[in-house]
Amino acid sequence: MxxxxxxxxxxxxxxxxxxxxxxxVSDSRQVGLWKHGLKSIKIHRVGDRLFGVAGDVVExxxxxxxxxxxxxxxxxxxxxxxxxxxxxxxxxxxxxxELDERLIRYEVGVPYAMGTGSKFAMxxxxxxxxxxxxxxxxxxxxxxxDSVLQVIECTAP
Length: 157
Hints:
Elements: E1 13-14, E2 17-19, E3 23-26, E4 43-46, E5 49-56, H1 57-68, E6 86-92, E7 95-99, E8 105-108, E9 112-114, H2 118-126, H3 131-141, E10 150-153
Antiparallel strand pairs: 1-5, 2-3, 2-9, 3-10, 4-5, 5-6, 6-7, 7-8
């Protein structure tokens, strides 16, 4: 087999994303049925909005492509509403929102975290950690969260 790495499969979760009011942070791990060396870019800036994706890698990539194309309503992606394998966190004007599988936006509090390491990250932030420290802590406890981080500093609204 040599240095050959498997390609992403349909059930490849992306985790963990945290927002503390000053920065949006994610890990880089892409996992499927086993850990492998693939990395994913999970947080993005489009216009005045930051967003992060967590969950099924295929669905996350479909959402990212749709946002970067200007969110055309005639090409709005559809996601399985019975499957909790996809989520989006949006940061805009200092406020934090989550989108569900139907792309319905609802406001959440700050700090906020999503993904398989979210409980660890939320606990860390409520104990005084910033988002970067929180995702690092989650990476020590959640097997699906990587310690290689991506960080976007937020500007004041």
